[in-house]
């Protein structure tokens, strides 16, 4: 059966239970429920129980400590006290529970102990195979109805799981975006741990060490995990029965179906966005651009930002759509580059796409390149924003990072000029100037390229450069002389320094 955690009991709104102490112990597992008013019920306890009491055993404040000690010695999960007799929970019982680390819950006077007991017992009872089939059928019905109405099918599914099994679930994207949940947001620590495991290609389902939680995949095993959602549930997969694995597989299938439904809904907007990008690139009249914008669902008088992204394998588009999930946007692919037209500020867009860094473990040797334009203040500005996004993406391609993001603030540097130069010309320029140095360093471990980089960074200061490299000035002079001989450039001249600086800009520094 799925374990019933104490925090799941508190999530049941109908019970209206109030936690008075033991917030750090909410991950304790309830294995049974018992009602007692004996001063020492330990002989009837075996550990893990939720103990319900009306506090008839309490005649004086001094009775609380022995009662709590007996429960702690028996290893109970928590104590739930009813306030129907006294109208409140006495301070001595609160203090005893806090001192001995026993979670204490208050049961309101209008909630019968039998109601609490029924809720716990129902959730602790194993689910029979026929009940599981019925349960999965209700899931399928909910998702189908939601798809037809355009509603939140996943939210309804997760609510049903919480209602039937008291299990918390979260559905997140590979960038960490929460798609749906039936509980409070996940901590960043758990989210990061889950994503790192999932994106590195390790086996799922998988228990998160020390968390009492598990990670499930929601896509086909042979498909890239970069574009599929994952499920995190408040349950240890190593404790599941066969019918629970069946339930998990059905849930994963439903999550994938919802993701595909959303992707299909985007397709019509993709066609309109593709035409808009083509028109902007062709410098079409702004009036026609404004008219085309309406087909994308974006207003012509709204501030827009264009994003360009590139990744081998055609995965840039779904990743871009994932990153911009919360922002109004239209996306399309044109000439192997994914574009997004976003109704937001450049800062909002940069913050959204920054989550792409989480994808690095799944990229392998294929870098993800993202360029973000400045604000287009109308249809007439779309061409300029498109050019900015393209150049920014080209600049990102010059980075050695697995995930490289370039925005408008970087477009004012010399790198923008280099980005506009064809790849072949850039490579020829770099190889002609630095090829001999790179080869010499490879054969002799001479560090000529790092020396050149440090020399230019120190504006040609011999003393400063030598100190930074921890070498003698005479050693530095010898290395610079060798560099000048091999490159044919006199480093005393400004134009030579500029040439070599630009060539170094096309070469990633060593890690």
TrEMBL record:
<feature type="coiled-coil region">
    <location>
        <begin position="248"/>
        <end position="275"/>
    </location>
</feature>
<feature type="domain" description="Purine catabolism PurC-like">
    <location>
        <begin position="9"/>
        <end position="124"/>
    </location>
</feature>
<dbReference type="Pfam" id="PF13556">
    <property type="entry name" value="HTH_30"/>
</dbReference>
<dbReference type="InterPro" id="IPR012914">
    <property type="entry name" value="PucR_dom"/>
</dbReference>
<dbReference type="InterPro" id="IPR025736">
    <property type="entry name" value="PucR_C-HTH_dom"/>
</dbReference>
<keyword id="KW-0175">Coiled coil</keyword>
<dbReference type="Pfam" id="PF17853">
    <property type="entry name" value="GGDEF_2"/>
</dbReference>
<dbReference type="InterPro" id="IPR051448">
    <property type="entry name" value="CdaR-like_regulators"/>
</dbReference>
<dbReference type="InterPro" id="IPR041522">
    <property type="entry name" value="CdaR_GGDEF"/>
</dbReference>
<comment type="similarity">
    <text>Belongs to the CdaR family.</text>
</comment>
<dbReference type="Pfam" id="PF07905">
    <property type="entry name" value="PucR"/>
</dbReference>
<protein>
    <recommendedName>
        <fullName>PucR family transcriptional regulator</fullName>
    </recommendedName>
</protein>
<feature type="domain" description="PucR C-terminal helix-turn-helix">
    <location>
        <begin position="448"/>
        <end position="505"/>
    </location>
</feature>
<feature type="domain" description="CdaR GGDEF-like">
    <location>
        <begin position="284"/>
        <end position="394"/>
    </location>
</feature>
<dbReference type="InterPro" id="IPR042070">
    <property type="entry name" value="PucR_C-HTH_sf"/>
</dbReference>
